[in-house]
Amino acid sequence: MKKIILAFAILAFVSCKKEEKVTIDNSGMPSEESATLTAKTPEELGKAIFEGQGNCFACHQVDQKVIGPSIKEIAKIYKEKNGDMVTFLKGKADPIVDPSQFDVMKTNFPVTQAMSDEELKALETYFYSFLK
């Protein structure tokens, strides 16, 4: 059964990826990446990562469980337990939201481990924005 769930999660992860080319006028900026990072608030950057390169929306929705827990549930539990979401996304902390889904989530660690601390912190900020 776990293999079926894992296969479904991988299929959903791969098939739902939406690529969209965005052109940024970065005249005077040192690089396109820095233009993207400086042009957004941490919350906006987190949303862009969540919906784009992170492809997190394939498994997580704002207020309903799909494959993984909802964004609101994740933020609520991490806040209540004073958890460190960034450390978890780096693969250096145990799951605290839904440990039974850890095998599915850990397949995404290569994506999150390649992200900078700033990007991971922006994802965390985006998640916590739903607690307002």
From TrEMBL:
UniProt keyword Iron present: yes
A GO molecular-function annotation: electron transfer activity
Record carries keyword Transmembrane: no
Designated name of the protein: Cytochrome C552
Entry-linked Pfam families: Cytochrom_C
Top-level taxon of the source organism: Bacteria
Cytochrome c domain location: 41-131
Keyword annotations from UniProtKB, A to Z: Heme, Iron, Metal-binding
